[in-house]
Write a structure and sequence with these properties.
Length: 192
């Protein structure tokens, strides 16, 4: 292993630690997001999660933690990643446009009182923004997970979590820590 490779790893770890340290004041946002999801589930509503690329994988991860289990056995929670149905995604992208892949699903599934959790490291993904706008118009609560700038999500989201960085890799690492904390709180509240 070269000296440069070791130094690079050290820099990566240090950068990661700075980003995570920057989340110390995000507790109130995490609690608010958790409370919204808990209230929706208690009211018989659903949680839908969307994102592109790595954020699509995160959407599936969140749904898996809540529909399956995070740490404890409890009833399944109605969390659905709208990133998983390849037939729907490709049909909508082909027949309409890629920026419609989530809007069409929101149109068909999301109702007032449901929650739409949007992940976009830039906060500017056109297909996620379009779905967030429609969900909000329909009376759903819109949650946003973005990078430092928040992008265009700010005025659309009821609750916005901003990871303190501007690169996708560090943003997604912060997102994972935050959504695991949310899953833990939600699960604990609904385990009885």
């Amino acid at each position: 292993m070269s000296v440069n490779s070791g130094r690079l790893w050290t820099e990566i770890v240090a950068e990661h630690e700075r980003v995570i340290a920057g989340l110390r004041d995000a507790g109130r946002t995490i609690e608010s997001i958790s409370d919204v999801i808990i209230e929706a589930f208690r009211a018989g509503k659903r949680l839908y999660i969307i994102g592109n690329g790595g954020s699509a994988a995160d959407a599936q991860h969140i749904a898996g933690e809540l529909l399956g289990r995070f740490r404890i056995n409890r009833p399944a929670l109605p969390a659905i990643a709208l990133t998983t149905d390849t037939s729907t995604l490709t049909a909508v992208a082909n027949d309409f446009a890629f920026d419609q892949v989530f809007v069409r699903q929101v149109e068909g599934l999301v109702r007032a009182g449901d929650v739409l959790w949007c992940l976009s490291t830039s906060g500017n993904s056109p297909n996620v923004l379009a779905a967030a706008k429609l969900a909000r118009e329909r009376g759903a609560v819109v949650l946003g997970f973005t990078g430092q700038s928040g992008g265009e999500f700010g005025p659309i989201c009821h609750y916005l979590f901003r990871a303190p960085h501007d690169r996708s890799d560090r943003i997604q690492e912060a997102h994972q820590l935050a959504y695991h904390a949310i899953c833990e709180r939600v699960e604990a509240a609904l385990a009885q």
